Amino acid sequence: MLKLGLLLLILPPLGLMAGYMMEQADVDACLDAGGAWNYVERLCIDSAQSGTLPFVPFMQRHPVLVNGGMLLSVLGLLFCLVGLYRGRS
Length: 89
Description:
transmembrane helix; transmembrane; membrane; elongated
């Protein structure tokens, strides 16, 4: 149970960070090219036709991914606590 708990505690946040950083790399490449990033459509558009694009947080765009990942991490923490409490049988 301890090994499963550690996996659930560590892997979901790493996946979330990887997804966020990949998206930020796309945003950075778009801004370096002189464009504007549309967070809702995940597209790089010409900055002349962008107007004012609102910033939409990662949590608002991917609520199931973020909430599910955090829920799995809490479940992993509980599994770790139970695994450490029970010890090896």
